[in-house]
Amino acid sequence: MRAKLTAAAAVIGFGLAAAACSSAVRPSAGQQDHARVSHSSARPQHSGRSVVLAAKRRASPHRPAALPKPRRTGVFGAECASLRGADRHRFRDMAAMPAATAIAATPLLSDLAHAIRVAGLAGALNSAASLTVFAPDNSAMSDLGAGNLQALLATKPDLVRALKYQIVAGRVTPTELAKRRVLTTLGGTKIYPAPAGASYQVNNGSVLCGKLKTANATIYVVSRVLIPST
């Protein structure tokens, strides 16, 4: 009988010990709730907007900042940089000037500007509605020869006629030059344009710098004085 009581006590003691151990390891329901609240409060809080922005950043590939677009003046030709010189605003300033004034303000066209003044054509060029000037640069004027140029400057009717051979009524576009449209000058002669690489030929000369805009004209600087063939 005593043996049975001792065994029962041992079983009861073992059960109480196991229950005590179990209660020590497993937290109560209140402790579990408190732990969940503590863990939740420890997480960083994000607003809805922050979450959306973060998601967009993850979804969008990296894009470099857009580079500024280069400004385009519309001019073309191998000698445009020399024509502009150190004045980076020269072409912009020319666009506000009438034809003869713009030519006079361009150092590489100083000989042509002098011829225009001697011929008395500055006022007519400045007041014209629209023109195209195939303007020989200083080298082209020098190619006439010093004696020939001086003789031309000394004979006003011949000088006026020669200058009119360089001028066409209306603004001629590069597209018209590319299409080989035959042009009639104010002097009644013909100009025969043709494509030539990245530029154009006009009769026996090359376009060195083209599509210079003035207030009332378009200027193509050329490598030869355009003299009618005989």
Tell me the series of helices and strands, N- to C-terminal: HHHHHHHHEHHHEHEEEEEE
Corresponding CATH superfamily of the domain at 80-222: FAS1 domain
Structural class: alpha+beta
> How many whole angstroms does the radius of gyration measure?
45 Å
Main sheet properties: 6 strands, mixed
Strand order within the widest beta sheet: 2-1-8-7-6-5
Total helix count? 12
Polypeptide structure, described:
- This protein has 230 residues and is an alpha+beta fold.
- It has a domain at 80-222: FAS1 domain.
- It is built from twelve helices and eight strands.
- The chain has helices at 2-25, 29-42, 48-59, 80-84, 90-94, 99-104, 110-119, 122-127, 138-142, 146-154, 156-164, 174-178; strands spanning 131-136, 167-169, 183-184, 190-191, 193-196, 199-202, 205-213, 217-222.
- The strands form two sheets. Strands 2-1-8-7-6-5 form a six-stranded mixed beta sheet. The protein has a two-stranded antiparallel sheet with strand order 3-4.
- A hairpin with a 2-residue loop joins strand 6 and strand 7.
- The chain is globular and about 35 Å long.
- The model is unreliable at 1-44, 51-56 and 59-73 (pLDDT under 50).
Write a brief caption for the model.
This protein is an alpha+beta fold and 230 residues long. 48% of the residues lie in helices and 16% in strands.
